[in-house]
Amino acid sequence: MASPDQDLVPVLDKDGVRLTVDDAIATVTLANPDKRNAQSPALWRALTEAGRQLPGSVRVVVLRAEGKSFSAGLDRQAFTPEGFDGEPSFIDLARGSDAELDATIAEYQEAFTWWRRSDIVSVAAVQGHAIGAGFQLALACDLRVVADDVQFAMRETSLGLVPDLTGTHPLVGLVGYARALEICVTGRFVTADEAVSTGLANVAVPAGQLDDTVRDLTAALLAAPRDAVVETKALLRGAQDRTYEEQRGAERQAQARRLRDLAGVGD
């Protein structure tokens, strides 16, 4: 895939993650195609840093990846006794206290949590394999546009682990408990057609049209006033945790804020 941000000066470019900003649009690129964008703690820290470095002008964040695969998941080096240079191996982590292990996993999860911030809309452009941590990273975004060659899979359970990078909540919300359980436990591939039909993806397009489709979607997302988008996203994100009557109240409160703002009337 050609890089749509190749002419921009990177705000961040480290450990397989590149962040560029073009006014209201930020692009986070997984930039290690030789390793199929396999993930590591260093990459997760870079993703977390990318979220923290977003300028206030940014309204849409596009997550994309170089090469044929979006992300092949966790780098298998993590499962070796040596682990990654300068990092505790997973074996070392397992030998630590419960508090230490919990804190380490929580740190890893931070790379996956900021994509649903209320002040941005995040769009994952996914091609090829999105396995395990790669699947969960795509799930971390608000929207997913996929190439027709996409193959999602949640392989953690097959390895004797569980998905722990925040992917279980959005997966159940998108496809329901029964299908989410089946996808996770079998570790099977979910193709583009199934991803669209089950709500995992908003749209599937030929691989050569992925960048253009994301560009058109981004333009449409930017067409609405920012404050209205922020309020609408907050309403929808909170809907599953509210009763019908609570959601009605939340709608009234949000609309009152918008009307006062448009009329130039303070609270």
Outline the structure in words:
- The protein is α/β, with parallel strands linked by helices and about 270 residues long.
- The chain has helices at about 40-50, 90-95, 100-115, 135-140, 170-175, 175-185, 190-200, 210-225, 225-240, 245-265, and strands at about 10-15, 15-20, 25-30, 60-65, 120-125, 130, 145, 150-155, 190, 205.
- It has a seven-stranded mixed β-sheet with strand order 1-2-3-4-5-7-10, sandwiched between helices. It has a three-stranded mixed β-sheet with strand order 6-8-9.
- It is globular, with a radius of gyration of 19 Å.
- The model has no long low-confidence stretch (mean pLDDT about 95).
Helix content class: 40-55%
In total, the number of strands is 10
The rounded distance between the terminal residues' Cα atoms is 48 Å
Main β-sheet: number of strands, strand sense, barrel status?
Answer: 7 strands, mixed
The percentage of residues in β strands lies in 15-25%
Individual helix count: 10
Q: Write out the strand line-up for the largest beta sheet, numbering strands in chain order.
A: 1-2-3-4-5-7-10
- Mean pLDDT level: 94
Q: What's the multimeric state? A: single chain
Output the structural class.
alpha/beta
Q: What labels would you give this structure?
A:
seven-stranded mixed beta sheet, globular, single chain, 267 residues, alpha/beta, three-stranded mixed beta sheet
